[in-house]
Amino acid sequence: MRNRRYGVYKKPMSGKIDSNKSVDDVLREIRKIRSRDSNFRELSLKIHGLICAKCGREFTDKNRHLLTVHHKDGNHRNNPPDGSNWENLCVYCHEDEHSRGELGDYLSDER
Fold it and tell me: Quick one: what percent of the chain has pLDDT higher than 70?
């Protein structure tokens, strides 16, 4: 599936549930996925530093939670270890980046 605003998304699940898995197994899988996803954030902060790529604001350990990782191609599953698809943006610049498409769509609509 392709979404114009955010890029490529994973296809919806087929609806099949593996009833042989225990609750502990399912929770273990979820934790594994979550830890893998959080690792790319820490790696991006190490590679690119604690600075917003758009506005240049510098962050410290106290306010680093305001620094987010933006995926340049819009695909949040594309996480190369070299960080080539990431840029660190503050929450304000990240919101601005994603709202630009909506504003453009709104302004281009014929009325």
Answer: 75
